[in-house]
Write a structure and sequence with these properties.
Elements: E1 4-16, E2 19-31, E3 35-39, H1 45-52, E4 56-61, H2 67-70, H3 73-80, E5 84-86, H4 91-97, E6 105-106, E7 112-115, E8 118-124, E9 133-137, E10 142-146, E11 149-150, E12 153-154, H5 164-175, E13 183-186, E14 192-193, H6 194-197, H7 201-207
Parallel strand pairs: 3-4, 4-5, 5-6, 10-13
Antiparallel strand pairs: 1-2, 2-3, 7-8, 8-9, 9-10, 11-12, 13-14
Amino acid sequence: MAARIEHLITSGTFSLDGGTWEVDNNVWIVGDDEEVVVLDAPHDAAVIAEAVGSRTLKAIVCTHAHDDHVRVAPALAERTGAPILLHPADRELWDRTHPGRAPDGELADGQEITVAGTVLRVIETPGHCRGAVSLYAPDLGTVFTGDTLFAGGPGATGRSFSDFPTIVESIRTRLLTLPPQTEVRTGHGESTTIGAEAPHLDEWIARGH
């Protein structure tokens, strides 16, 4: 059976720089009836574990280390035995949420994670934070962008560890070069496509945030 994409939404909070906000997060599960990977573990380990069921969880892949994307990663790892993978440039952010519990492995540009015969290729896309990554699955016509690219523009860059010129460069050179029909599955909100977002790059730059 070919790999498929499953989608959960979990709700909780995001905290940084002294503020806390209510958020709904997308959780993406990629795999088949035997094995899966989970992209981000935001707010509820039990709900994610229930969706995984009896399947082997090969990895918990963190698109970045904001607390609303990694809060229950250790709990999910404990339940399932799956390793937590994070880009090392986001370790400082990770340690703010999980001091004393290191990720189990690192993500690097060009790294390939294979599940159910489908390759997820790691693309470094810093800017929203230093270690943000996207996962491109060419066989599925999909890129999982975390909080780097949304329907309507780049992720937020007004807080610590973020930088607007960097996120624009990541989107311009790493994401908008993907095929236009590629579906963009985001960390929050609705999906979009590369083709739908590409014409608006200059508008985002002019807006400057």
